[in-house]
Write a structure and sequence with these properties.
This protein has no helices and 11 strands. The protein is mainly β. The strands form 2 sheets. Strands 2, 4, 5, 6, 9, 10 and 11 form a 7-stranded mixed β-sheet that branches. A 4-stranded antiparallel β-sheet has the order 1-3-8-7, with no helix packed on it.
């Protein structure tokens, strides 16, 4: 079994900061790209930021310069530092990872965390 567990969401005032964490666990052989997505009520789930196993990053235009994605040394944890938060950043944030299970010939799948709520409001 593979699990992604997120933490760090909450309520913050506009202009504030939050740091999201996501830890992968289980019978993992290798993790490729990890990323963060978000979904606001009534809207589709959109990519916020992604980082490859080699450290290359990609950001949605709406968060460039404000959010920073990074991975832990063991490559099984991904972080999202969110600064200068705006009300329009309010959403449920989901962690995503491309994981090969068990061995080099194991199944490869797209895994999701349970989501963490981020609310930006005064």
């Amino acid at each position: 079994q593979v699990q992604l567990v997120e933490s760090g969401g909450g309520l913050v005032q506009p202009g504030g900061s939050l740091r999201l964490s996501c830890a992968a666990s289980g019978n993992i052989f290798r993790i490729g790209t990890m990323g963060w997505y978000r979904q606001a009520p009534g809207k589709q789930r959109d990519m916020v930021a992604a980082i490859t196993s080699g450290g290359n990053t990609n950001y949605a235009d709406s968060v460039k310069g404000r959010f920073t994605i990074s991975r832990g040394n063991a490559k099984t944890t991904v972080y999202l530092q969110m600064d200068s938060l705006k009300p329009e950043d309010t959403a449920v944030y989901y962690c995503n990872a491309d994981i090969r299970y068990g061995s080099i010939s194991g199944a490869r799948g797209d895994y999701w965390g349970q989501g963490t709520q981020v609310t930006v409001s005064s």
